[in-house]
């Protein structure tokens, strides 16, 4: 396997985050169109209503995914952006004594 570990900066590229939000919005829009019968023979009023609702759902999904991902990225310490990742991001360090349970006392 490769020894190249991705840095946090590599994992948080804005274009990839926008692509993820766009893909989720596209998926939500297509699911809405299919569920409202857009691809079936129907009146023009029904297809127009389905298209408008699909665009609204896609826009809401795009904004929601961007907001959620950006809030999750706030959990990352900016000072550690250039460090390589070799463990879960939010797990505490094993050698940090401040992460011990309260009242546990020093280890002997």
Question: Layout of SSEs?
Answer:
Layout: H1 8-11, H2 14-35, H3 44-73
Low-confidence stretches: none
Average pLDDT value? 80
The helix content is 40-55%
The number of helical runs is: 3
Q: Main beta sheet: strand number and arrangement? A: none
Radius of gyration over alpha carbons? 23 Å
Structural class: mainly alpha
Shape: rod-shaped
Explain what you see.
By secondary structure, the chain is mainly alpha-helical. Helices cover 52% and strands 0% of the residues. Helix 2 (14-35) packs antiparallel against helix 3. The longest helix is centred in the middle third of the chain and has 30 residues, at 44-73. The mean pLDDT is 80.
Summarize the structure.
The chain is mainly α. It has helices at residues 8-11, 14-35, 44-73.
Properties at a glance:
108 residues, 3 helices, mainly alpha
